Amino acid sequence: MVDIANRQEKATAKAEVAERRPLPRWMITVASVTILLIVWEIFGRRINPVFGSYPSAIAEAFWELVVTGQLWSALYDSLRPFVIGYALAILIGVPLGLFIGGFRAAEAALGLYITAGYAMPLVALVPLLILWLGLGFAVKVAVIFLMALFPICINTWLGVTAVPKTLIEVGKSFVAPDTVILRRIILPATLPYIMAGIRLAVGRAVVGMVIAEFFTTISGLGAVIINSANNFDTATMFVPIIILMVMAIGLNWLIGFVERWVAPWQAEISGRDRE
Length: 275
Hints:
Layout: H1 2-20, H2 25-44, H3 55-68, H4 70-102, H5 104-119, H6 126-133, H7 137-161, H8 165-173, H9 178-216, H10 221-230, H11 234-262, H12 264-270
Helix pairs in contact: 3-11, 4-5, 4-7, 4-9, 4-10, 5-7, 6-7, 7-9, 8-9, 9-10, 9-11, 10-11, 11-12
């Protein structure tokens, strides 16, 4: 009788633990996307095709762009300047943020311009950049670079200023060179801020890419959007929009993966490694 009671208690405890266990995030995401697509399909069919579309029509337009090769050409024309501009923003923004955060004179001299550049609507500079660089590849790289540079630089700068002074003083008490303090103390403490800035820059870089293509309308996903809108082809217009959204989500996930790899302690502190 005692064994049976113990087994029943264990079974009850396991059932309670299973009830309290939350659903995996991927299941919630899949359910959310499925519900959205179903609702969109139902109500989208009742809308005039000029003013909206629905998933099945967008899928047909997507397949047509794939078969004709127009999608691959536009995607290639968009990704080339995106990769170069975004990479340049990281390569310049992180060292610049470390420099501004590490030296008072640099902060006093450059901090004002970085803050102003982040707050300024950079769209207003696009016509001027077109005058300087023309309508080709260079202007796209410049717009993407400027859109992504400032969040990376500012987050890195804030990360350096947030490093506890006691840690730096401990390094100096052991007569550690400045390069060692930077590599062993400042960089590890600043990494979460740097990765957050790189994440924020993804969305701004995608926006910059589309803005540049809207102004030039020569090639790329932005050109497909503009040309489809001019032809009142709403289903085709939605294809590059959804691709851009998926691209931003994928890059955000990739950056999160890199962050967990280079700064695993941050995931443990926040509890994200358990999700």
